[in-house]
Design a protein that fits this description.
Two copies of one chain form a homodimer. Chain A is an alpha/beta fold and about 350 residues long. Chain A has three domains: about 45 residues, no CATH class; about 130 residues, Rossmann fold (3-Layer(aba) Sandwich), CATH 3.40.50.2300; about 130 residues, Rossmann fold, CATH 3.40.50.2300. Chain A is built from twelve helices and twelve strands. The first copy, chain A, has a six-stranded parallel β-sheet with strand order 2-1-3-4-5-11, sandwiched between helices. The longest helix of chain A is centred in the middle third of the chain and has 17 residues. In chain A, about 50% of the residues are buried. At the A-B interface, α4, α5, β2, α6 and α11 of A face α4, α5, β2, α6 and α11 of B. The structure holds a DNA duplex (30 and 30 nucleotides). Chains A, B: This is LacI family DNA-binding transcriptional regulator.
DNA sequence: TGCTCGCGTGCAACCGGTTGCACGTCAAGT
DNA sequence: ACTTGACGTGCAACCGGTTGCACGCGAGCA
């Protein structure tokens, strides 16, 4: 029964102190505020600690300082390819600052989002909330609870936020298509109430108006492949020679829908996506508006860390990240006549 | 400057105890081992705690019990659509048990994986390691550190593991194609050294041999779209009338490559994927072997929780999850003659 | 020589729970 | 009536660090 040979317990500050012949306070300071100590002391204790394999306990530290050394990134759907770059960038940036990152997935469900946020507030020093599906009112309430919070792609006044500004990219897209001779564009709307969707729609309308070309806005769509496939017919019905979709997933669906209808992309109709989350994995490779999710993630963490350091800091930061068009092969000169389904 | 009206501190066990006229020990027991207490006491304290909005502190609890109430799921690439279902299922199952889940992304980098695991061991009660890219030797070492660990899709003896067994699905796929009249199949290999790849390759060869049809195995490919596109030409060069790809991403690339070459799928060649991670988002919708990532995630967490409860438990559990074929539209009867590129 | 001052370190309380042990109470057993 | 024991609760130590305060020492200054 003697299990003495078992797992060696992780050494505590106490055994390091004893081994180094100093008090636990000194060991503690070596790892948290070494500038208060004589250099030789720091060196000595560090050496002993290294030999013993000592690592300060996050838990104990958290208990006395109130700092968990951990932040959260919450997204609506981890499987949506827009988010992984955001998460990854956040993770990398936080890690560089000695802070761990946890990822939360709300499954596109506002109720889950609420619960998750409550839980994460107790587990982390701060939260990056990406594309929240909560009503603005609730976002405000959450922010008011005082736990550091930074939003991404959600524009709520009084809450620090990073916004990918689709407008420049959309304008470029419209210019690009107009330059190819298209005189009638369709916009395939995303989820009703989405901040990004509204921004894109408005930018598209405005630019089309400036250039004097026609813009038809289709009904809202969930950003999913099937919806895009269905939207293909709607696009053809408008007589537009080019369509811009709310996001790449939708655009990919449209591509499939066009293929099914026997309409050639880009020869007969041009398709443009948004977010650049599919890279060149579609056929034909998709012309799209690059969303810069990575930068957004990095900046959000940066802002969040500031808030964690100084809870009194600026609460109304609003950062806009301009987007831009990436031209691939799903856009081409306008055909002589609008396309029509062939089968 | 009087900030007294500021944030109300979260109430501690002490204030609840005082308000309820009991000791802190009692309050503690109400929340951890209520069966030790008289029912009326539990009810009374619970009520007071509710009024005060008291929630036990994870940190403090962790310090005295050594249980963090958190587990980790580590994946090589959060952007690879195979993993989100695994993660989500794990999250759901752990959450139901009152345990939080952290997601780690190793970016396909073994060095990062090693660091991340070390960090997570100190932050969690246990780790689910999915599709580890580490050499078996290292996986063993990590398991030997005694921190509860469950592998998914990695078959290392002596470490509890959940394996998606592709063999049944592959056999079904071969049978399906053979039934459609195909007499020559190509297998587009995945990453060299991947456990899943080897399993799929072996199963395919074996089943083809049994049915007396030809199997050509192509070189290893990274599981990415571009590689698949390139592989299309290799497939055509073999003269096979059907191809099974290591995963859906690769298969999707092959689809694009075939489209570029003007070869019709499935009329001229049939394509089958693995993992069923793209659902019906390809064109044509992909016939594929369903991987059951979700179940794997759920089971892994279940096993892990057991290990956390009883560190002395069974260390060599090995669970196999059978896969099966999902037939969509990328497979069809064999053409009279093998396809050749048209452009 | 005596006084001040600053630096480096230690003491001990504290963060917010958990838990072994002891104590008091009350019902059942003899 | 007295012992026994189960049950419910409290006391206080403990988990592993952090930190305000005090103390001792040596240098600088008058």
């Amino acid at each position: 029964m003697a299990r003495l040979e078992g797992r060696r317990q992780a050494p505590t500050i106490k055994v390091v102190a004893a081994a180094a012949g100093v008090s636990t306070a000194t060991v503690s300071r070596v790892f948290s505020r070494p500038h208060l100590l004589r250099e030789s002391t720091v060196a000595h204790v560090t050496e002993i600690a290294r030999e013993l394999g000592y690592r300060p306990s996050h838990t104990a530290r958290a208990l006395s300082t109130g700092r968990l050394g951990m932040i959260a990134v919450v997204v609506p759907d981890i499987a949506n390819p827009f988010f992984p770059p955001v998460i990854r960038a956040a993770q990398a940036h936080a890690g560089a600052g000695g802070v761990s990152t946890v990822v939360g997935d709300t499954d596109e469900d506002p109720a889950k989002e609420l619960d998750l946020l409550a839980e994460l507030e107790r587990r982390t020093d701060g939260v990056v909330l990406v594309s929240s599906r909560l009503p603005e009112e609730q976002v405000r309430e959450i922010a008011a609870r005082g736990h550091p919070l930074v939003l991404v792609n959600r524009d709520v006044r009084g809450v620090p936020r990073i916004l990918v500004d689709s407008a420049p990219g959309i304008r470029e897209a419209v210019d690009h298509l107009a330059g190819l001779g298209h005189r009638h564009l369709a916009y395939i709307s995303g989820p009703a109430g989405s901040w990004s969707d509204e921004q894109r729609r408005v930018a598209l309308r405005a630019r089309c108006a400036e250039l004097g070309i026609t813009a038809t806005v289709l009904r809202p769509h969930r950003p999913e492949h099937d919806e895009g496939r269905a939207a293909a017919a709607e696009v053809l019905a408008t007589g537009a020679t080019a369509a811009i979709a709310f996001d790449d997933g939708l655009a990919q669906g449209v591509l499939a829908g066009m293929a099914e209808s026997g309409v050639a992309v880009p020869a007969e109709i041009s398709i443009v996506g948004c977010d650049d989350i599919l890279a060149a994995t579609t056929y034909p490779p998709l012309t799209t508006v690059h969303g810069r999710g990575g930068e957004a993630g990095r900046l959000a963490v940066e802002l969040l860390m500031e808030l964690v350091e100084r809870p009194g800091g600026e609460r109304d930061r609003r950062v806009l990240l301009p987007s831009h068009l990436v031209t691939r092969s799903s856009s081409a000169p306008a055909p002589a006549a609008p396309a029509a389904p062939r089968r």
